[in-house]
Design brief:
Layout lengths: L2 H9 L7 E5 L12 E2 L9 E2 L3 E4 L9 E9 L13 E5 L11 E4 L3 E4 L2 E4 L9 E2 L10 E3 L7 H9 L4 E5 L3 E7 L3 E2 L10 E2 L2 H11 L3 E8 L3 H13 L4 E5 L10 H7 L3 E5 L3 E2 L5 E5 L2 E6 L3 H19 L9 E6 L10 E10 L5 E5 L8 H6 L2 E5 L11 E6 L1
Helix pairs in contact: 3-6, 4-5
The structure holds ligand LQZAQKY5 and molybdate ion.
Length: 398
């Protein structure tokens, strides 16, 4: 099954997470559940953009021109009266421009003497006046539903006077590592054991995508124990169960059998992708199941390509794995077989500033250090022809 078809299959029947309310202070990184309209106009009044004097443009058309200062308007305290011919109001940035005035004379271009001010420059009409609604107007939709809220959105939402926001519940992603050889980080492994690494990476990706990671620990390669771990995911009402390892064809690769016995409907198993051939997907009741291959690079690349869009879909977002673009090959690359290949590569720039990729000579799917060093994955479609240095290739930036 091609990668694109597998993704389409995985996203079938996804249910959106419900809407809940988040306080502004807790909304960073959350996904907005519906379009957000402003409850007010900003600025709500014509405001001064500078410290100086509110004047009538015609009064300072010919300079020097001396005006009478009839009052003061600091921010938060408008001047109640009207600026008439030959008059000015001392004004500060953010204050409402008083009636009658249409222009701000900045204080650098004015000489003050008691209640008189003399303009030494002639500002154009409307200069340094921010008209009401310059930024936005009441009722205007400023943030679209499905947006992942960042610092700029939160400032804007605050300016719109929303103290709380409708956001999607974070999907809960239960993560279960499998394998007798695995121990948790920080533990002394036995003679034939290694440290379980995939969990840490997948959990971080889940959090980055706006989900909540639920650690189900490590199951031994033993069906009864593994079934118990799976039941914990069901009891926790996880939206997604991610299993790590045990997805291939070995005698101790039990994940699919255990999930099948629990009633999982299999969507697909094995895809035309490298790394990630034994990827498995299905659903167990309402819970989506994604079986990631155990090899660490396979786990993480599959999580990026499949888990990220799946979490996005539950949050109402149509998102891909990341930034897909093109780069120039720094060294030749060989012919590809029938699996779509995601080649780990260093990312740099050519002398003329174009993106450039250098594929690593070793591509073993156990090599986490190389993945961490990679700036991009070169995407090699099935049966792609060999390419010389200088050719352009599609890449996924990491
Ligand atoms: N005869 C065949 N053997 C294999 C095939 C195949 O088609 N025929 N596929 C290979 C490919 S490709 C992959 S990828 C792996 C994936 O197999 P599993 O998903 O069953 O993974 P495991 O066997 O459990 O583990 C593989 C490897 O990764 C290490 N591992 C597992 N989990 C973790 C973890 N949480 N953290 C760190 N490392 C982990 C494990 O110790 C193994 O070294 O199968 C090939 N075999
Ligand atoms: O697909 Mo496996 O992930 O090649 O190592």
């Amino acid at each position: 099954m091609p990668v694109a078809d597998a993704l389409t299959e995985l996203l079938k029947g996804v249910t959106l997470c419900e809407t809940e309310t988040a306080q502004l202070a807790d909304a960073n990184g959350r996904v907005l559940a519906q379009d957000l309209a402003s409850t007010r106009t900003q600025p709500p009044f014509a405001a001064s953009a500078m410290d100086g004097y509110a004047v009538r443009a015609e009064d300072v058309a010919n300079v020097p021109a001396t005006l009478t200062v009839i009052g003061e308007a600091p921010a938060g305290h408008g001047f109640e009266g009207t600026v008439g011919p030959g008059q000015a109001v001392r004004i500060f940035t953010g204050a409402p421009v008083p009636n009658g005035a249409d222009t701000i004379l900045i204080q650098e271009d004015a000489i003050r003497d008691g209640d008189k001010v003399t303009a030494t420059e002639s500002p154009a009409r409307g200069l340094f006046v921010r008209p009401a609604g310059l930024d936005f107007s009441e009722g205007q939709i400023l943030i679209a539903g499905g947006a992942k809220l960042g610092y700029r959105d939160l400032a804007l939402a605050a300016a719109m006077n929303h103290a709380e926001l409708p956001v999607r519940r974070r999907p809960v992603v239960a993560i279960l590592a499998t394998g007798d050889e695995l121990v948790r980080p920080g533990t002394e492994p036995g003679p034939d054991q290694i440290i379980a690494s995939n969990h840490a990476g997948v959990a971080a990706l889940v959090e980055d995508c706006g989900g909540t990671a639920l650690d189900l620990g490590i199951s031994p390669d033993e069906p009864v124990a593994m079934a118990g771990h799976v039941r914990r995911a069901i009891e926790a009402k996880a939206d997604i169960l991610v299993t790590l390892g045990g997805a291939s064809v070995g005698d101790h690769d039990l994940v699919q059998d255990v999930l099948g016995a629990q009633g999982m409907n299999l969507a697909f198993w094995r895809i035309a992708m490298r790394p990630g051939k034994p990827l498995m997907a299905g659903h167990l009741g309402p819970m989506k199941v994604l079986g990631l291959p155990g090899n660490p690079v396979s786990s993480l690349v599959c999580a990026l390509l499949f888990l990220k869009p799946l979490i996005g879909a539950m949050l109402g977002q149509e998102i891909g794995p990341g930034v897909e673009t093109e780069a120039v090959l720094a060294s030749p690359i060989g012919e590809n077989d029938r699996r779509q290949d995601y080649v780990r590569a260093e990312l740099g720039k050519t002398d003329d500033g174009r993106l450039m990729v250098t594929p690593f000579a070793k591509q073993d799917s156990s090599m986490l250090a190389l993945l961490a060093k990679s700036g991009a994955l070169i995407i090699r479609p099935p049966h792609a022809k060999p390419l010389p240095a200088g050719a352009t290739v599609p890449i996924l930036k990491l």
